[in-house]
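Query structure, 674 tokens:
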């Protein structure tokens, strides 16, 4: 796995200058506890950017989805306490080292230092008095101490930036007697930092072998070095980021500019962040908390299965043994009965156990055959131990032989009755285990996918849909949304729709979204959206009337002596009515390469885009509960594990926003791929 070089840090710190002025909306730590995610908000060129900071490895914006714990740790809460809500006022590379410094102003002025080198790279928050507030690691080192409340010191510099070197400095270093017999590439790396990759690129552009010694370098070649330094610095002003791919199209390396010394197929990117984001998301395994949780459950259930299998085996063995012992009692019935009768009769005559033992010993098996199966009498337990078919069997001498045999058979039945429910329980456990194994496979496949955060379109803050002829239709979600639609989004040629009742969204069919004239079907689709998100759905109507006019017939000024409330409008001219618009809404899912989104509206349009879709109508089930149910149905009926992963990644609020009010599933249409 590649780690950022000095050149990479230089490039990314320049590129991310556009983040300056943004505020920290929130901070997370990923589920594998590897990196920080800074969520920013602002009005610049980035829309809700997320900065990924992995000390020792990388620092870039990310568009991919990263799983975070549901409950933040104490460490991340401490970081939030200081930095959440603060404004980023500066971001820079420290000298030419692999260290990035961010300055943020919030409760006080903070400096955050991110180390991108070493075996224990750090993330340090420093306060106004240059005292360490928080760090990923606290430790004492040879050159400095990094402890809470102590003065902060930067690590020793790796060398002066090549972009700041003068001819004299370069000549004096390379001409030093200390380095005359060393390879040029080693001296450049050690003396000026920048990493081996950069120095090899400089030597390649200069046409100099990296293995030659410093003593062989001419003044002309030193001048060439300086011109190449300047050349690279100019290239870094307008980055040309890319990822180098191998013959199997797997990422090998990312670069902020084209490094001529490295061969390979280039995949170009608009930003260096995007290049790094693609590289790491393709090469680093995603560790999902879902996978960890499922695997943990699976191991527990596997242990239960093993116990159940062991219990069934023991029950079966006991059943067989009890039956066998019962059979042996009957096979030796007369001998056992004779022995038991003799013992009980002797005891009734008050003959002591000592005398009974002596009589048995003196009698011998010839005169008393039953003795050949007797091993021992245990008076204190009321037991005798018999040898039946070379096996010791303990029985109660106070019972008859038939009762003893029946006891064994009864025990066999009792154990047998436990086997059936135990087997049924085992079958259920195996089913649970199989389901979890299947779910684990799905989650692992999903983790291998690179899912990006979906960039929402401007119209998604409204209710929205597309008609069959791809006219964009948007409707307000509240009074302020209605006002924005009517005053900012409504053009004279657009069509304006409104349900004929109190409490309905302003709905617009945008004419500019299509070169065609709206068809009757397009108009009905817009009317349906206006009807479904009206108060008619809330009260449970089956259908409502909707009227429409052109945008030129919508006025925001009342006639003299009249008043229009906030968000209100006046309709001029003749209204066109669509009677009895049915309150039924289709909900489907639209997929792209990296994500999925909810689509809703007219059934005919939705089924053209979504292979699977659900129809809902007014009902009694709360929006939140129904949203979870709909998402689950889509997941269970997805055509692939990739689709399942994308549906799981959809924010539940997207499902909620597609449901007008309390509803019920009216019908489902799912077509599984074969």
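Result returned for the query:
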């Amino acid at each position: 796995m590649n780690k950022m070089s000095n050149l990479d840090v230089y490039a990314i710190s320049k590129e991310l200058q556009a983040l300056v002025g943004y505020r920290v909306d929130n901070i997370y730590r990923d589920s594998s506890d590897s990196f920080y995610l800074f969520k920013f908000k602002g009005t610049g060129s980035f829309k809700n950017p997320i900065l990924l900071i992995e000390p020792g490895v990388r620092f870039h914006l990310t568009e991919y989805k990263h799983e975070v714990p549901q409950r933040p740790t104490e460490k991340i809460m401490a970081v939030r306490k200081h930095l959440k809500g603060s404004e980023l006022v500066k971001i820079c590379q420290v000298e030419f080292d692999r260290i990035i410094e961010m300055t943020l102003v919030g409760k006080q002025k903070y400096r955050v230092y991110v180390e991108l080198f070493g075996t224990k790279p750090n993330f340090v928050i420093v306060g106004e008095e240059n005292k360490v507030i928080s760090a990923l690691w606290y430790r004492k080192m040879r050159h400095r101490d990094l402890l809470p409340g102590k003065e902060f010191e930067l690590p020793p510099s790796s060398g002066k930036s090549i972009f700041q070197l003068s001819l004299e400095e370069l000549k004096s270093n390379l001409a030093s007697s200390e380095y005359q017999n060393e390879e040029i590439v080693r001296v450049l790396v050690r003396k000026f930092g920048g990493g081996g990759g950069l120095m090899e690129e400089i030597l390649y552009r200069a046409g100099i072998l990296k293995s030659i010694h410093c003593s062989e370098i001419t003044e002309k070649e030193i001048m060439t070095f300086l011109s190449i330094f300047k050349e690279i610095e100019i290239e870094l002003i307008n980055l040309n980021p890319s990822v180098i791919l191998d013959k199997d199209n797997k990422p090998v390396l990312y670069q902020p500019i084209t490094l001529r010394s490295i061969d390979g197929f280039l995949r170009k990117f608009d930003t260096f962040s995007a290049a790094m984001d693609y590289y790491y998301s393709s090469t680093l395994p995603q560790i999902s908390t879902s996978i960890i949780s499922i695997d943990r459950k699976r191991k527990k259930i596997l242990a239960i299965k093993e116990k159940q299998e062991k219990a069934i085996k023991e029950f079966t063995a006991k059943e067989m043994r009890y039956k066998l012992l019962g059979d042996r009692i009957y096979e030796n019935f007369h001998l056992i009965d004779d022995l038991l009768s003799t013992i009980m009769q002797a005891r009734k005559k008050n003959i002591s156990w000592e005398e009974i033992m002596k009589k048995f010993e003196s009698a011998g098996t010839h005169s008393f055959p039953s003795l050949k199966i007797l091993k021992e009498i245990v008076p204190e337990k009321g037991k005798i131990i018999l040898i039946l078919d070379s096996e010791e069997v303990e029985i109660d001498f106070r019972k008859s032989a038939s009762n003893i045999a029946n006891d064994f058979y009864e025990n066999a039945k009792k154990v047998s009755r436990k086997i059936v429910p135990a087997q049924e329980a085992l079958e259920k456990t195996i089913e649970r285990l199989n389901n979890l194994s299947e779910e684990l496979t799905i989650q692992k496949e999903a983790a291998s996918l690179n899912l990006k955060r979906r960039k929402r379109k401007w119209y998604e803050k409204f209710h929205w849909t597309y008609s069959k002829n791809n006219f964009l239709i948007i409707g307000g979600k509240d009074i302020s949304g209605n006002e924005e639609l009517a005053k900012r989004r409504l053009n004279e040629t657009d069509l304006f729709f409104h349900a004929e009742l109190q409490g309905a969204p302003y709905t617009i069919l945008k004419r500019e979204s299509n070169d065609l004239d709206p068809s009757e079907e397009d108009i009905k689709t817009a009317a349906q959206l206006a009807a479904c998100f009206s108060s008619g759905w809330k009260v449970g109507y089956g259908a409502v009337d909707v009227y429409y006019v052109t945008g030129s017939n919508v006025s925001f000024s009342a006639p003299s002596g009249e008043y229009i409330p906030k968000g209100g409008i006046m309709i001029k001219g003749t209204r066109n009515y669509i009677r009895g618009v049915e309150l039924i809404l289709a909900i489907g899912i639209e997929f792209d390469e990296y994500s999925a989104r909810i689509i809703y509206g007219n059934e005919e349009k939705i089924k053209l885009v979504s292979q699977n879709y659900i129809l809902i109508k007014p009902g009694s089930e709360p929006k939140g509960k129904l949203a979870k149910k709909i998402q689950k149905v889509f997941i269970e009926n997805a055509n692939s594990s990739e689709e399942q992963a994308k549906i799981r990644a959809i924010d539940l609020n997207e499902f909620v926003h597609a449901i007008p009010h309390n509803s019920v599933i009216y019908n489902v249409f799912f077509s599984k791929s074969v």
